[in-house]
Amino acid sequence: MDPRHLFVDQRLTGMCVYCGAEPQTRDHVPSRVLLDEPYPLNLPVVDACEDCNSSFSQHEQYVACLIECALTGSSEPAGAQRAKIRRVLEENPSLRHRLFLSREIDDDGNITWLAEVDRVKTVLLKLARGHAAYELGLPQLDGPRDVAFTPFAVMSDQERDVFECFPQRSLIRWPEVGSRAFIRAVRSAPSDSVNGWLTVQSGRYRYKVEQTDGLVVQIVLSEYLACRIVWD
Ligand SMILES: [Zn+2]
To answer: Model-level pTM?
Structure first.
C-alpha cells in the first residue's frame, strides 16, 4: 500500500463532519467570509448537511466583522479595511448596530469590543471540526473539552510563544498512515507548513492540528485572534 495514498476523503463520504447526518453538500473550511478575494486555490472542503451548511453563516459573518471592528476601531462600513466586510456591514444594518452597541470606550479613550462568547465559540468549534476531519479524517462529533480564544494583543510574549510552538513535548500520538497529517509529516520540507502551521491566506487565516494527549486545533484569525479547541 502506498502510504501517500490519501484515503481519508473516501472514508469521510457519507457523513456531515459537523453533526454526523447524511451530507447533501460540501462546505469550505474556512468559510469564505473569513478570507479575502481572490480566494486561495484548493480550499479545503468537507461534507456537510444543508442545515449545518446554512446555520453557521450569520455567526461567521458576525465573527469576521467583530474582528475587523477590533482591528479598525469602527463598526461603520467606511471604517472597514476589508472590502468584503465593508459589504457585509453595508447590507446588514442590524448587525452593524449590534456591533456598535458592543463597543466600549474607557475614560482614556481606549476602545474595546464585547464579544458574544457563545457565537464566537460556535464558529470556532465548527472550524475546528472541519479542520480535524480534513486533516486527520477524524470527525469530532463529541463536544470539545475546551474552546478558548484570546487576542494576541493581550497575551504576554511567553504566552504567545507557547501558543505558536505548541506542543513542546514529544508527540506521543502519531498520525495515521494515509491521513493528510501523515503525508505532511513524511514530506521532507513542506512548503505550506511552518512550525506545523498551515497558512490558508497570509495575514488572514492559519491553523494547526495536533494530536498529543488529545486533539488540539489552533486557529489564528486575521493575525488578531488566537484560538484553541481541544478534545480529550
Ligand atoms: Zn450537519
So the answer is: 0.86
